[in-house]
Amino acid sequence: MSGTINPRNNPDLPDGDIPFVPRVINPIKIRLVVLFSAEEAVRASQKIIQDEIPWADVQVYGNPLSVSEIRFDGGMVIIMDDIALNLVDTDKIRRNNPNVVIVLLSFQRLVQSSPPAVALKEYPYTAKADLIFAANRVEFAPKKIVASVVRAAEDHLNIEKCSDNRRFILLIVDDEPSWPSQFLPILYNIIGQRAGVKIIRTYEDALRFMFGVDDESLIRDEYREIGSGDQVVCLITDIFFPKAGRIDSEAGRSLIRLTNKYYVRIPIIIASKAAEAKEFAGAGFVLPKGDPGSLDTLRTYIRDLTGIGDFVIQDERGRELYRLKDIRDMCRLLSWAGGDGPRAKQLRSILEIYGERDMFSTWFYMHSLRELGDKLRPQRYRGKQLIAELEVSLKQELRRMRHIPLVIGETRVFDLDGLLKTLKDAAPEVIAPLSDDDIISSWLDSRGYSELAEALRPIHGKGTQLRAVITGIIEEWIRIYENRVDHTPGLADSVT
Questions:
Q1: How far is Cα 354 from Cα 304, in angstroms, rounded to an integer?
Q2: For the chain, what is the mean pLDDT?
Q3: What are the tens digits of pLDDT across the range 469-482?
Q4: Which of 119, 140, 187, 203 could form a disulfide with 251 if both were Cys (CB 3.0 to 4.6 A apart)?
Q5: Do 345 and 454 reside in the same domain of the chain?
Q6: Do residues 57 and 184 both lie within one domain?
Q7: Rounded to 5, what percent of the chain is helix, strand, coil?
Q8: pLDDT tens digits, residue range 85-126?
């Protein structure tokens, strides 16, 4: 399909196509996964990793000397159990491999449920690992958690090595490895490749990451440039974790207070079994760890309040008023909010709060509308001016969408039918990287097909099977929705 002509009613757009710039949060991919473990369950997880992380080669080692001698230029993660980590020369591994992450899957109960200093005292080898996760034969069985462990290692590597890369981070602050092991598989299923995860285990490390300092008194006006807090889209924190070597609720209390003071836009999930968590109800969403249904609740909260899922509008009491699927829904809502009645006035006052907290721009970023987010984020409009500015920007973006193709091989795709036909004809090796980095889903998100993007986001693989699965989902989606009114982006009544 050739480039389309700039619509005469939108002179701000350039003639021809506008390049689609995919968001790749992890430029360094994990290309090699090494499993070295006395536990058969760890070694047997090789196939799980190959199926769920198809861009990586997975090798099982049986000799500690061979592991210590590994040399690999690309991104690599070495996953070991407690016995194996004791046997290898991790210093040598790091000298020979600049992009390696060493992960401990610990079967020791004390390591699983203790802060770093306690685990280190009893089991000094834990200091050799970059990341530590809990493993057992039931709840934390390697086959259940190993794919998320590799993803966490890839995030860790990129956050450490590519600090200048623009990304979106879910920050987890918890001193016990068992909690991330429990919910990371759910978390990665939600976020796909749209955001990364950073795991932190002490208060001082959290301050260094968020503000670039290790003491509250040192926070200065340039904290956004020094720290990485501006990249955080959600804070998931316990109440009790080490602060100045002591474990008490002051660590969680201080971190939550500072986050609400300096980053009011960041939603906070307080994940704790402690009774003290109840007193923080006004400062964040309290999630009792281990309660039945807590992980489902976590899934819903992250989808609704981090910009990853629908744009959910709530009143001051937290009651859901509107749930918007895409920017066409947002345009319709803005047309109501621009009215003169009391309900329109009330809605404008709520949307003002959303604007002050950067919730519009965060949602745009997470749905691959980066230019729109950049344009609106610095603005602090109020009242009808806020509504008018949003409407103008969204309508321009809807027109702009028609000129942004997804490039698959040598073909430029502009619509769903073209996407389906091109994918059916494309070689599997062309499709795989588009799936690995969420590029197909990101383009669909930017076009307003968020539901279809969500359906495709967890799909990874290789060969003709990958192509068949992806095209099958798109074909079914088109079949179900082909009669839905206004299902094509840009045709909403409020826009045209």
A1: 13
A2: 87
A3: 999 999 999 888 76
A4: 203
A5: no
A6: no
A7: 50, 15, 35
A8: 999 999 999 999 999 999 999 999 999 999 999 999 999 999
Provide the CATH number for the domain around residue 258. Answer: 3.40.50.2300
Tens digits of residue pLDDT in 314-370: 888 878 899 998 888 999 999 999 888 899 999 999 998 888 888 888 888 888 888
The answer to whether residues 357 and 413 belong to one domain is: no
In a domain, 7, yes or no: no
Domain closes at, from 355, 382, 401: 401
Question: 121 in a domain, yes or no?
Answer: yes
| 14 lies in some domain | no
Read off the pLDDT band of 483 (50, 70, 90).
low
195 and 231 in a single domain? The answer is: yes
Q: Is 178 among the domain residues?
A: yes
Task: Tell me the residue range of the domain where 63 lies.
Answer: 26-147+154-160
The single residue listed with the structure tokens 């909690």 is 179
**283 shares a domain with 326:** no
Q: Strand (E) positions, 30-168?
A: 30-36, 57-61, 75-80, 100-106, 131-134
Question: Are 191 and 287 contained in the same domain?
Answer: yes
Query: Given the structure tokens 């389309």, which residue do they identify?
Result: 4
Which DSSP string corresponds to 309-373? S-EEEE-TT--EEEEE-SHHHHHHHHHHHTSSSHHHHHHHHHHHHHHHTTHHHHHHHHTT-HHHH
> 241 - beta bridge partners?
248
Spatial separation of the C-alpha atoms in residues 349 and 478, rounded to whole Å: 38
Q: How many domains does the chain have?
A: 4
Q: Which of 102, 127, 160 is the last residue of a domain?
A: 160
- List, in order, residues 6 or more apart from 464 with CB less than 8 Å away: 428
In b/e form, how buried is each residue of 153-180, taking b as 16+ CB within 10 angstroms?
Answer: bbbbbbbeeeeeeebbbbbbbbbbbbbb
Give tens-digit pLDDT for 390-422: 899 888 888 888 889 999 999 999 999 999 999
Q: What is the pTM of this model?
A: 0.85
Is residue 335 domain-shared with residue 302, that is, in the same domain? no
127 and 232 part of one domain: no
Own/partner long-range contacts of 328-333 (Cβ < 8 Å, ≥24 apart): 328/398, 328/448, 328/486, 328/489, 328/490, 328/492, 328/494, 328/495, 330/390, 330/394, 331/391, 331/394, 331/395, 331/398, 331/492, 331/494, 331/495, 332/492, 332/493, 332/494
User: Are 223 and 215 within 8 A, CB to CB?
Assistant: no
- Helix and strand numbers (H, E) in the chain are 23, 16
